[in-house]
Amino acid sequence: MPKRPAPKHQQYRNKLLKFKYDSNKAIQAILWLAHKHGGAIDKLKLVKLIFFADRDHLEKFGRPIVGGPYVAMKHGPVPSNLLDYIDCAVEGSGSPFKLDNPKVIALAPVNEDELSESDIQSLGHANDLFGHLDTFSLRNLTHKLKAWSKNYLRPSENTSYPLPYEDFFLDLDDDEILEIILDHQESLDF
Q1: Which of 46, 68, 89, 176 could bond 81 through an S-S bridge, CB–CB 3.0 to 4.6 Å?
Q2: Residue 21's CB: how many other CB atoms inside 10 A?
Q3: What is the value of pTM for the model shown?
Q4: Burial level of 29, CB count in 10 A (0-12/13-18/19+)?
Q5: Helix and strand element counts for the chain (H, E)
Q6: What is the 8-class DSSP label of residue 169?
Q7: What H or E segment, with its residue span, contains residue 104?
């Protein structure tokens, strides 16, 4: 019996999907979620909600909202550039929000013109599904994901490991869009 070819996303494993970090969308996504939670939201909860919004948008529209590299960390999947930006948002930094650990506090209104309708749809979807959960219930939910467990190699260590966008699809019902995204990025590479 002939051997079946590996799924395309496994064939292109050495060509990981990459999406440029969009700092404008990141800022507005942070502000959007902070305002949905009364103007302040726990940092860990915020990055988990953005992960779920990015995953939802990637599955439905072929790109994440925020983009940039993701990592698997002790408390689950994290958009790396976004976390770095949040950690530098101190009062007087000129940021439209500030980190008053563990809270991220909005200092400006959200500018929805920086977000597409689909961005807002996915942010709303993630917030509707998971925004009612407390921070650690949400973190525990991400620990059940194959995308995190496959990539967080040494749970006893407090470190981070790359989390490829392809692995977001391990926990989704349909990876047909992944094939389309891979084909598109492959054509861009030529």
Answers
A1: 68
A2: 17
A3: 0.88
A4: buried
A5: 8, 6
A6: G
A7: strand 103-106
How far is it, in rounded angstroms, from Cα 108 to Cα 97? 7
Question: For residues 183 and 190, what is the distance between their CA atoms, to the nearest angstrom?
Answer: 11
Please give the chain's pLDDT, 190 residues, in tens.
444 444 444 444 445 788 999 999 999 999 999 999 999 999 999 999 999 999 999 999 999 999 999 999 999 999 999 999 999 987 778 899 999 999 999 999 999 999 999 999 999 999 999 999 999 999 999 999 999 999 998 877 778 899 999 999 998 877 788 888 888 777 776 6
Rounded (10°) angle between helices 80-87 and 23-36: 70
Q: Domain coordinates of the chain in residue numbers?
A: 19-189
Q: Measured between alpha carbons, how far is 190 from 186 in angstroms, rounded to an integer? A: 7
CB 48 within 8 A of CB 142: yes
